[in-house]
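Protein modeling request. Please complete all fields; requests missing the sequence field cannot be processed.
Requester role: graduate student
Desired output: 3D structure, token encoding
Chains: 1
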Amino acid sequence: MRLDKETVLPMNLMARRIVGDRRFERLIIALIVLNGVLVGLETSTTVVAHAGGLIEWLHHLILAAFVAEVGIKLAAVAPAWRRYFGDSWNLFDFTIVVLSLLPFSGELAMIARMVRLLRVLRLVSALPKLRLVVATLVHALPGMGHVLMLVALLFYIYAVAGYHLFHGTDPERWGTLGAALLTLFQIATLEGWAEVMYAAMETAPWAWVYFISFVIIGTFVMINLFIAVVINSLDESKAIEAAGDGRAAAAGIDAPLLDELRAAREALARVEAALSARRS
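Delivered output (280 residues):
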């Protein structure tokens, strides 16, 4: 059945009101949390033996709710589908829902369980603060790449130096470049590094200079560099988010109402175009 413009517009407005309602958002969050709890319960053979059918039924019910959510959000932006799929978080949710609908069975049943686990990640897209954290990590990746290059250079220099200094007395830890890099990684985690240092100091009392300098530079300084990059990216993400909210606030309009006004403007433009076509 073909819907006319007078029918589509009220449906769009109703869908936008539902999407903008906090109760709808809280319901979706509750379903995501429930899905996570059910995935955890499925790891217990006792629970599955007694309530496996109920858990499976709840999974189908949650999936149906997620499909309905996608349908409502699509109806809210219809026919401008790009507004939905242009949002990376909407695309992420849509992909998970589509994967959940695929008929995995038999040997592929494990994939279906993994897809159910992926639904828990939808909690990230449902909570604005978690979205901000993820956006911060994404923005921090370029800066972290440069820090990682510096860390790799530091590890390489200390590994080559450690090989030449200690491979004769401790070949198990320093006998090859790979073993030296692995030993330095252990030291960087601060797990048993003192034992490695004391073993080297038995033949080289000055070895403490090598180990302490690496711990200070390779661990404490580098960790602070990573923290600085993340904090800087967090400030940038907050500024971007505040700029987006500020545009709507400056107009004194909330997001759902702004969408309704935009849809009404588009409908008015279509009516004017239709009247112009009839006159001509």
